[in-house]
Amino acid sequence: MLSAEDNALLTATSRGTAMGDLLRRFWVPFLLSDEVPKPDCPPIRTRLMNEALVAFRDTSGRVGLLAERCAHRRASLFFGRNEENGLRCIYHGWKYDVDGQCVDMPSEPATSNYRDKVRQTSYPTVEAGGVVWAYLGPAEQTPAMPDFSWLHLPLSHVHVTKRLERTNWVQGLEGGIDSAHSNFLHATVDGFRRTPAWLERAQAATDLRARYHALDRSPVFLPEDTDYGLRVGARRDIGEGTHYWRFTHWMMPFYNLFKQGSAKPGVNSQGIAWTPIDDHSCWTIVVTWNDERPLSGEDIEAAEDFAGPALPDSFLPVRNMENDYMIDRELQVNGTFSGIPGTQAQDMAVQESMGSIVARFEEHLGTSDAAIIRMRRRLIRQARALADGADAPLASRDGSVYRVRFGETLVQEGEELDAAARERLCTPA
Amino acid sequence: MLSAEDNALLTATSRGTAMGDLLRRFWVPFLLSDEVPKPDCPPIRTRLMNEALVAFRDTSGRVGLLAERCAHRRASLFFGRNEENGLRCIYHGWKYDVDGQCVDMPSEPATSNYRDKVRQTSYPTVEAGGVVWAYLGPAEQTPAMPDFSWLHLPLSHVHVTKRLERTNWVQGLEGGIDSAHSNFLHATVDGFRRTPAWLERAQAATDLRARYHALDRSPVFLPEDTDYGLRVGARRDIGEGTHYWRFTHWMMPFYNLFKQGSAKPGVNSQGIAWTPIDDHSCWTIVVTWNDERPLSGEDIEAAEDFAGPALPDSFLPVRNMENDYMIDRELQVNGTFSGIPGTQAQDMAVQESMGSIVARFEEHLGTSDAAIIRMRRRLIRQARALADGADAPLASRDGSVYRVRFGETLVQEGEELDAAARERLCTPA
Amino acid sequence: MLSAEDNALLTATSRGTAMGDLLRRFWVPFLLSDEVPKPDCPPIRTRLMNEALVAFRDTSGRVGLLAERCAHRRASLFFGRNEENGLRCIYHGWKYDVDGQCVDMPSEPATSNYRDKVRQTSYPTVEAGGVVWAYLGPAEQTPAMPDFSWLHLPLSHVHVTKRLERTNWVQGLEGGIDSAHSNFLHATVDGFRRTPAWLERAQAATDLRARYHALDRSPVFLPEDTDYGLRVGARRDIGEGTHYWRFTHWMMPFYNLFKQGSAKPGVNSQGIAWTPIDDHSCWTIVVTWNDERPLSGEDIEAAEDFAGPALPDSFLPVRNMENDYMIDRELQVNGTFSGIPGTQAQDMAVQESMGSIVARFEEHLGTSDAAIIRMRRRLIRQARALADGADAPLASRDGSVYRVRFGETLVQEGEELDAAARERLCTPA
User: Fold this and answer.
1) What is the ipTM of this complex?
2) C269 CB contacts (<8 Å, ≥6 apart)?
3) Which of B68, B397, C394, C401 is deepest in the core (most CB within 10 A)?
4) Alpha carbon distance, N-terminus to C-terminus of chain C
5) Do A354 and B74 touch (CB under 8 A)?
6) B93 touches chain A (CB under 8 A)
7) Mean per-residue pLDDT for C7-34?
8) Model pTM?
């Protein structure tokens, strides 16, 4: 439970708010490279932390990110002409380069130097892993990029999906951190009931998670502060004096790493970014990668199934709030616990159904919410500190802190799994 | 005419407002039994007096009414699993019974007693006459059910329609009380003009209303305060020294009884409840019944014609504000006065066209509005009294005051129709 | 650039605001005569300066304009019966004539004189040139009609189009005054690039504008205050010591005269009114006329092409913000500068894309905006003066000041084009 005041602080994304300013000290992924597929292609309207923007790829291949409305008379540059290393407003022909500099102003006398004085608000971008990242903070504080392994891989090893979620970004992130729900929301009815047939299938699995995850639905959570955010251990009692430990991560400000990872050579990894569009919506960007080999067609299909189909020329899921996520009440009775087909659709259903900004002051949190509680406190504390003049968090300055991996292990009763061991488990080879 | 301040008081339905709290001292009908047709069927999203709710029928057949969002992390229980005498949230599997008690909390350790401490906001319900009623007020003040005769009848004698009206409930109610408009809004053009052919047909009718109602379009209204609300007499001068008296009723807080009733054995009765959904919309629930015999197919058809068709899987009328109630301007010239087909569509057209909360401070009321004026004053007075610490009105505590009937009679000049006679006329045998 | 405060003053249209009251001192065109094609036809819902209204043509052919909601209980008179020189409310049959006088009140006793005391808010109208004009200001200050030549012509010489623009009226007007944008927004790519083929075609044109307009894209603007508003000269350097001068006009409060006009016998004229619907939308009413002859089918087709098609039974353009004005990115590359087909669609695209009230405090104006700056100042000054008790502007009282025409001429270096000459050029013969 959070006070209404803290809830407002936690969820505000605009420039000048404490959290909005904290978010602006990080690079944020927002655009698929494919959305601006080639030089001089049409510009794209977008929105980040409540700022209306337009993105375009210039003749040299650089991605520009400008305030949507022209500095002159505020016509939308979305309608602009993307030509010769600049975006030209169709109203009076003013043209800006990727740095926002006005480079042509044909409606003013040729002798005028007004052009040199006019700058369109612009933000630097970086392109990596098939994704474009932007930085909306002060130029003199430009942060390091998070050093994710998938940013160094060939694009064949990486698959990215992007969906529109109509909730505040923290709400999405909380869903990502909350590993307690997978035994319910994402379960089958048989799994929830642990029928004999289901148990037999589970025990035959080679994957530890498949084998043990559902055996204990009320694990002990151990969230630990780290430089990058939180390492979240979940300890499950799987019987016969054995504990199954599983470690996922929250990385500042809005990343989850939740699946496999380099702990299991040859198995795909998965993580999510919840990028704030405005206070009431975010991009859910899911990255699937394999550090060792290209993704197969099957891998990509699985990643797309996870995200679920989107409407044509849109990132809005086909299953969405307007159609109650196509919940199938028959399926819900004996098929899947939720009755909603698709993992991400299930997540969206519960997260969006809370309202776009959940009333955290009306919650009744349990022990399973330990990581969420700790993350909220950390975010609020860091936003307040920054507003009070402190430095940005280390994660904003040192991308190397992001070099972590998913971890899991079995521990017998009496064995120790101390902090050093936990950290080792989550450190890539 | 009402001050803007009184208008705001009259129309506010939220908990903590004077009128919202008065409304919460009565049982309110809101759900057709058919909407939750059988045990463990899918839950229904609903809304009463600005509270988001979910209704479900449990394994034992009881109808539960819970706050829509789960006490835990506020996911919508609309997506919940309706199973084994409780509604289970699909997020973490918390389960609540019809009393709101958390009866299962599988995401917490088995040893935890947290489950016993968590209650979901819940409201008691009663099912009668094919309708589910809820009580949203303080438990220690649970009111009596209004003792309508149709609540005691076999369901074969009763037919209920439910439509969404996009106005504040008082606005609907005022339309129901306002018996002056039927000579215009619901008239034919011939009836309005009283053409010879129309007059001849009227005089041949056995029904008093059909014979006399339109002969005098500016009746004298006599609204009288009663324990249940108002008895509204309308005296029409029908010529040759004869008065036609007709009595309808407003019953606290939002019922109209306006048609036939047990005064005429064998003839159907009709009444309306205007149940507040929020400040800007209400359910128009029309009950047609016959105290003596099952309704015929024709009776039911007439009741459905009165309500007009609704969109599929919806209570929104096919004729609605978006399509100007399909007004037919040709029909309006020489057919019906309004040009809008259907009684209830005609009512909705005028009521919704005022805006969802009519600016009562800009009205110019006439003598025909006497009952409306009196009802507003009564509602405001009682809401203020309750807020000041007085008891709820008697009608909230004693359901027997609702035992009234529609009445009508002819009175010759010189004859008396004193208060006692008027009351007798409206008392069921 | 304008302060946020001045921007709010400039764009507020409601009664009681400084600008709303200034606007209410002029006749405003708002309805095509065709919308109420014949006596006793169905009434039309409309809205002017944020007032909800209903217009109807009575039995005598007069156009009435009443407040939308009935004085009695505020049902919409849009559903009213238009009969025998009055509009009758369908709720209780109250009937009003074009002057707003209640002329029948059948729900009240025949002996009542209440009818005589009730007046529906009504506004006088004038019908001219196929257009209906309304006056919403104080009766004792009824203004003169602007003496446009087209108001005196046979209807065969005039063609009027009306479109819904979802911006504040000033924003539309600024687009109309801004003659600098036509070399960009309305240009072809070849014209913008001045390719040899394009130059050759331009030089072959007999029309001065076609020949010279695009040769100098950064003309010198000379806006001059006049009794009617502004005379806006644009001087283009077309080489060899020659200047091409072109004069357009802003006429109080929201008219542009921008094309041809009586300076060129036989050639059509064109002007626009931007009539405020509310703060966020306006009617764009374009009048095409020929002072000397009936318009041909070709003329009318050109006028309709200029406006672009509207949706059926609507004034909303087919190309609109919801579909990004059907911008064609292929066309934009080498065809037309904007990629949007249609002159008025191009204007709407840029004007609406600024948001319904542009943030004028975030602009960077250039020398090409001189006329816009001067118009804003003039409007604000006059609104403030009126609020401070000054008389309405002369243009409100003397329609003859509107007798101006479009003007253009060539001036050789060294020749004078003094104020008297400029005025002569813009005075009809």
Assistant:
1) 0.96
2) C150, C257, C259, C260, C261, C262, C288, C289, C290, C291, C405, C406
3) B68
4) 39
5) yes
6) yes
7) 98
8) 0.95
